[in-house]
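Chain A, query sequence.
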Amino acid sequence: MKVYAFVPARSGSKGLPNKNILLIDGHPLLAYAVRFGLSLGVDRVILSTDSEEYADIGRKYGAEVPMLRSAAASSDTAMEEDILADFAERLPSAGIPLPDIWIRLKPTNPFRTVESVQRGLDVLKADPGIDSVRIVSPADPRLAVQNSSGFLEPLLADWDPARSIVRRTEMVSAYSPFNLDILRHRVWEELGSQFMGSRIFPIVEHSITGLDVNELDDFEIIRAIIESRPRPTVVKRYLPDNMDLAAPAGGTTSDPRHA
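Chain A, predicted structure.
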């Protein structure tokens, strides 16, 4: 079974410009994903980017960048299925056969473990009926929305509207699904935008794995956690040790304080 990890790193982020190469502890965010991919021992680690600057950084940390993304996979509305379509169309012409399994490693989710990914790969190898695996983190289901009058009301029916407070244990279990994906290439070929399929096996990990950089405040919180010394045990567990290596000489990285 051929397994590739891919790191999606578009340069056109609007909420936090160049977030994928912002520095944490001397390393750009995308480097954490690349190094993690290499630590998995998979067949290839490929960076998908529309930027030569990002491509240079990815290569310095060990990723393959056989081509820059196509325009269709680089737009503001492009999704993961567009990246997979770009790979399917262009990797073979670059001499790279398509894999059986893709592992999606978002640069903005730096906390993960090799053990969880290996377990996910084992699940897919053992059961052909499972479409994909998602590493998820626990989420609080006690959510509220604004009603038409502008006031809060429970989102889920599990929350009895006659009560102002409910225990989380009284609600349905909920998970954040945007941490890490392991999927079969053939499922994307068959289903397109439903590329994870309908039989998605969850692996529930620590809530730290759900931390994601969407805006500057998120970035500063994650940077403070990673740069703390000594690092808390939970951080050391979910951050690869090889990120302690010195950043490679040369290349370009960004710091939001100087953006």
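The chain has seven helices and ten strands. The radius of gyration is 19 Å.
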